[in-house]
Design brief:
The chain is mostly helical. It contains 28 helices and no strands. Helix 10 packs antiparallel against helix 11. It comes from Stylosanthes scabra.
Length: 486
């Protein structure tokens, strides 16, 4: 009897509704977290990354060598480098992978090269040995003429630790970095190239790209002819070289002979013909291009705008909207710059309305481009309206507005804006003073202009340059005190 009762009770318990049975919470939460972590390094939403970071800290997973690099990479692609550094600093025993991830983040977020280099030095001080990835990421941080000696230092380090011949990615990265350092860098890249026993298509492309950038199209063509194998990048580099040199006929001849083309090939040719002023040929190539992306749309519309072809630019922009092409910051900045130079305020307003209709979240750089466009086209009140709505103004925002006001004779308003800028903690640069001096010139504010000129070095430590002296000569000349300009 008792056995039957217990059996019935067991059967009833087994038949309870599913909602009454609780899943193991810890297991479910951890499983969800693991799923989020697997793709975390691709996440660009800062708030999402911060939420996952909170869960990582809650479960004490930050010291996991798999988790910390994912968080650093996620903060990097979210453009929040300070948070990436904070995560790195919380890890007690950083390995080479974590150091490499931070160096890469610093390079990707355009930090000063010294920042990535300091992380590299810290890595060595803490006894962590670099690997081939360390050098390739470190070299990505150097991209200018002033980095030649630093690249040479990395080169010496690579040779000392034997990475020059063990991994072709390292010498390829060195060649690429050298080629960004001007004539001396290109010569160093060529020497390294000739020393290499093993070369791949990336090696050749880097050298040819450096020669093209250095303006040595003849040597670039010789290297291109000597290549044992080429890819579409090789051809596109030469197309770009010919287009920038104004040799659009040779570019078209090469374009016709390409074994395969991609949208970059088509966009380069469209840009070349726009630059040469042959808008019909540019449009013909644009229409023939298969699989158009935003870059080629931007190139064609900007070409029309720069040439002042209002109807063509507007119609093509409308067509782009019809096909559902999504805009980005690069598109807006390029088109607005072209509108500003040609005075095409109508297209600029149309784009502005489209941006607001789509509720596109404009970055400060895009809003600065709107200010510049409206100011140069004489729509100062609209420019001031955009300026006032920028939540995070940068120095370019202030400079654009000051220059716009000064350009159109509203000097006193420009000086008032400058005083407000300084009061809010922004430090002026040389461009700020060019805008101020121009404002004083157009408004006839001779004494004020003279005072600002002398305050440049005394108060702000900015040495006047040729442009500033030119503004002063113009100011004193218009004010009838030309004798003081000599």
């Amino acid at each position: 009897m008792e056995f039957v009762i217990y059996t019935d009770m067991f059967i009833q318990q087994m038949q309870l509704p599913a909602a009454a049975v609780r899943a193991p919470t810890w297991f479910s939460t951890r499983r969800l977290l693991d799923e989020k972590l697997s793709d975390l390094h691709c996440c660009t939403n800062l708030n999402t990354v911060k939420q996952i970071q909170a869960q990582v800290l809650k479960h004490n997973l930050l010291q996991d060598p798999y988790v910390a690099p994912k968080l650093v990479a996620a903060f990097s692609v979210s453009r929040h480098l300070p948070s990436a550094v904070n995560v790195f600093n919380l890890v007690t025993n950083s390995n080479a992978h974590l150091y490499n991830t931070l160096i890469r983040a610093q390079a990707q977020n355009n930090a000063h090269p010294s920042v990535a280099f300091e992380t590299f030095f810290q890595m060595q001080r803490n006894g962590v040995f670099p690997d081939s990835f360390t050098y390739t990421y470190l070299l990505k941080a150097f991209d200018g003429y002033n980095c030649f000696w630093t690249v040479q230092m990395v080169h010496a380090h690579v040779v000392k630790f034997g990475f020059l011949e063990s991994d072709i990615f390292v010498p390829n990265s060195l060649i690429d970095s050298y080629c960004k350092c001007g004539r001396a860098g290109i010569d160093a890249a060529m020497r390294l190239f000739l020393e290499m026993e093993e070369r791949d298509v990336v090696t050749w492309n880097s050298v040819i790209g450096g020669l093209v950038r250095g303006g040595d199209l003849g040597k670039a063509c010789e290297a291109f002819d000597e290549m044992p194998e080429r890819d579409v990048v090789s051809w596109n580099i030469m197309l770009d070289g010919y287009a920038k040199a104004g040799e659009i006929g040779k570019a078209f001849e090469m374009f016709e002979g390409m074994p395969e083309r991609n949208v970059v090939s088509w966009a380069t040719m469209v840009w070349g013909y726009c630059r040469a002023g042959d808008m019909n040929m540019a449009r013909l190539l644009f229409d023939k291009c298969p699989g158009k992306n935003l870059v080629i749309w931007t190139t064609m519309i900007s070409g029309y705008a720069e040439k002042g072809l209002v109807n063509e630019a507007t119609k093509l922009y409308d067509k782009m909207e019809e096909v559902g092409m999504r805009i980005d910051d690069g598109f807006l900045i390029s088109i607005l710059a072209a509108c500003a130079e040609s005075g095409m305020v109508g297209l600029g307003k149309r784009i502005h309305a489209s941006v607001e209709r789509r509720r596109f979240r404009c970055s400060t750089k895009v809003l600065n481009a709107f200010i510049d466009m409206y100011a140069k086209c004489g729509s100062l009140d609209v420019a001031l309206g955009v300026f006032s709505r920028i939540e995070k103004k940068d120095l370019v925002s202030w400079n654009s507005m000051i220059q716009g006001l000064g350009m159109h004779g509203r000097g006193e308003k420009a000086l008032e804006l400058f005083n407000r800028m300084v009061h809010e903690g922004f430090e002026p640069d040389k461009y700020t003073f060019i805008g101020l001096l121009c404002a004083c010139t157009h408004a006839g504010l001779v004494n004020e202009g003279r005072n600002y000129f002398y305050s440049m070095q005394k108060v702000h430590g900015i040495v006047p340059q040729v442009e500033h002296y030119g503004c002063m000569i113009d100011l004193l000349g218009r004010g009838g005190t030309l004798g003081r300009s000599f």
